[in-house]
């Protein structure tokens, strides 16, 4: 088990619940439909990859490797970049700061980090010698 990944997954999971509740209740009157969809996507992907990070932390106990360490770090970075950029875009847009729309170009980088993390998990398990 990789305790650090599990702790971070727990904290990011709690944050996803808080941000999801804020989006469902606090943003409805403030955000456009498109902004709410982007925000919801950020929350969903954060949740999905919190579970992936927890899985990575648990897999590390049975299959310790540098590849799983890389996967965990990529999941964390992916959450920050993917979900974080969408949260920022939504909140800045609500407040009229549309000059930061270029942040949308960063979001796919987070998606690539997620894909690479999943590949690292597969690679780690493939390379494991019992």
Characteristic terms for this protein:
mainly alpha; 130 residues; 4 helices
Number of domains: 1
Question: Percent of residues in beta strands?
Answer: under 5%
Give helix and strand order, one letter per element, not per position: HHHH
List the uncertain runs. none
Rg measurement, Å: 16 Å
* SSE-based structural type: mainly alpha
Mean pLDDT comes to 93
The total strand number stands at 0
Helix content: over 70%
Largest sheet: none
Task: Describe what you observe in this structure.
The chain is 80% helix and 0% strand. It has one domain. The protein contains 4 helices and no strands. The mean pLDDT is 93. With 130 residues, the protein is mainly alpha-helical.
List the helices and strands and how they pair.
Layout: H1 3-26, H2 33-62, H3 66-94, H4 107-127
Write a brief structural summary.
The protein has 130 residues and is mainly alpha-helical. Helix content is 80%, strand content 0%.
């Amino acid at each position: 088990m990789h305790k650090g990944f599990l702790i971070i997954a727990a904290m990011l999971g709690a944050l996803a619940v808080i941000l999801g509740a804020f989006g469902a209740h606090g943003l409805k009157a403030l955000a456009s439909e498109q902004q709410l969809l982007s925000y919801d996507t950020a929350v969903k992907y954060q949740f999905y990859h919190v579970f992936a990070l927890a899985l990575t932390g648990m897999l590390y106990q049975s299959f310790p490797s540098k590849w799983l360490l890389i996967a965990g770090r990529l999941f964390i970075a992916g959450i920050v970049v993917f979900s974080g950029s969408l949260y920022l875009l939504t909140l800045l847009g609500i407040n009229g700061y549309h000059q930061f729309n270029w942040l949308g170009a960063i979001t796919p980088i987070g998606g690539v980090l997620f894909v690479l993390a999943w590949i690292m998990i597969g690679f780690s398990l493939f390379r494991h010698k019992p």
